[in-house]
Amino acid sequence: MPKFGRPKAISCLFLGVLVFSATSCSQKQQSVQEPTAKEPTAKIDAEQVARAYGLDSFEQIEAIRYKWNAQFPGVNLSHSWEWEPKTDKVTYEGNDKDGKPVKVTYLRSELGSQPDTVKNEVDPSFVNDNYWLLFPLHAYWDKSATVTDEGMKELPLGNGSAELLSVRYPSDGGYTPGDTWDLYIGKDNRVQLLVYHRGGPKKPSLVTSTWEGYQKAGPLLISTDHHGNADGNNIRIFISDVAVKLTGSENWISAQ
User: Fold this and answer.
1) pLDDT of 200-232, one tens digit each?
2) Between 3 and 165, where is the model more confident?
3) Whose CB has fewer CB within 10 Å in the chain, the N or C terminal residue?
4) pLDDT(10) > 80
């Protein structure tokens, strides 16, 4: 199973324009590794949540393709991806920071030999977008995160309450140390709402987003629609054209 380590995607909240991320930036992205199990310490933990999103079947995934889309005042962004988790092979199709079309395929283990556009723009965007796609799994895979159950809390958007699972990152090292991601978890172990608290002075400092539009892509559960705000500005992140290819098959299974 892949594990991304402490990614650098939050530092990509500004890639010329706001590019929204669901990760912490305290360490550079590492190659795919086996995740280390975390012992449950409360009523709900990262492993329980990850299992609800397909953790136990992730080894069946040969490839994932999807389009990450962002909308906020004055900006519309789209990135198309295909990712092979076993080899960490990435294919990207979209635009660079100057709006020029880019299509590239690379191995993340060989990132150092890639052009600057791939190292400084494409791969950070990949980390960013992949965490939006699979954040509940990454929260479990990430060895450096401290995950605690804070008990039942009122939802910061909308009505009702949910179990608050807080994912905290170390206060030193990396790009933006001290980030915290609060996951509001329903009784079905699905994320209902996510709140990001930046550990450093860069903006946005506070991001609140719904997790909705759930679909199944093979064994994976994907939240495809996120509405909310970043420091008071309305945002929408949505994932489209999601499909997976299982080991031993050449057929793509579309999310539905």
Assistant:
1) 888 888 999 999 999 999 999 999 999 999 999
2) 165
3) C
4) no
Q: How far apart are CA 108 and CA 122, in angstroms?
A: 11
Residue 237 included in any domain: yes
Burial class (CB in 10 A: 0-12, 13-18, 19+), 51: middle
What's the number of domains the chain is made of?
Answer: 1
Contact 177, 197 (CB under 8 A): no
Instruction: State pLDDT tens for residues 120-163.
Output: 889 989 988 998 999 999 999 988 889 999 999 999 998 999 99
Task: Give me the domain span that covers residue 69.
Answer: 9-254
Grouping H, G, I as helix, E, B as strand and the rest as coil, residue 81 is: strand
Q: Specify if 2 maps to a domain.
A: no
Provide Rg for the chain, Cα atoms. 17
Token pair of 15, please? 């890639």
Q: What is the CATH number of the domain that holds 32?
A: 2.50.20
Q: Does residue 100 belong to any structural domain of this protein?
A: yes
Amino acid at 164: L
Tell me whether strands 191-197 and 180-185 are parallel, antiparallel or unpaired.
antiparallel
Distance of CA 218 to the CA centre of its chain: 19
The verdict on residue 1 lying in a domain is no
